[in-house]
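RNase adapter RapZ: structure, please.
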Amino acid sequence: MDTFRLLIVTGMSGAGKTQVLQALEDMGYLCVDNIPPVLIPKLSDICRQGGDRTSRVALVVDIRGGEFFKALSESLDTLKEMKVPYEIVFMDATDETLIRRYKETRRSHPLAPSGRITTGLKKEREILDSVRHRADYIIDTTNMKTSKLKDYLKKRFTQVESGRGMSITVVSFGFKFGIPLDSDMMWDVRFLPNPFYIPEFRNKTGRVKEVNDYIHSFEITDEFKEKYFDTIDFLVPNYEKEGKTQFVVAVGCTGGMHRSVAMAEALYAHLLEKGYRVSIEHRDMMKNNVEEDYNPHEVETSLA
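Here you go.
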């Protein structure tokens, strides 16, 4: 089995590509920054034949390459023809966040060296739009500290033992905090009865037994879960057959504290029972006014 892993890191300037490269280097990846895309196929072929020492490679490609960046799409097609496995990691953040970071460092945007940062960001998003749509991972660093980014990278890109199958992450979130950018599938459970309007449940999470029992006491919840689980049970093995290695299921309600948490926990338990390699994250749960929570298992730190 080919254990070679090639990560192509790209995305918005100021979104954290440098931090990603440093973290991957610490994880044992051979890292190259700002490589001309035209060189990617040749370098990948050399590293692929280099054995264990060069079996994990991370390359940063972005608009700093100027005209050379236009060759990225062609190079990706060449990798596919060469049957070289690769994954695209796209770094992103809101324009407001990127502008603040630029101002803090007193840097100008590479596409607007003597103009407004907003002008440069607009041009950059237009240039990167096509590669963003091809990305395997979209990492939104808007509200992410460096330590959380490192945790995320370790979980996603530490060498996976062969034969273990696809990795599944179930993420609960609140729509008022934004949709997780890296989700492969999203479920909106705002139609379920909302414990927020029950005073004794308002400040308790969906992992508290009384709140969880309340959500599950309605017939609509049982009907939803039947369709919910059936869809997942159909899709997961078919995604695995297509070679997908990582699958993110996002479950959202208004605040990410009650219904989405309960339904994410239900799916997590279902997938565990099925024998899948699954983890769970409650991205926005603690952003609410939480007074009581019950943690029945070790939950991984939220990232987005």
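Notes: The CA atoms of residues 111 and 120 lie 5 Å apart.
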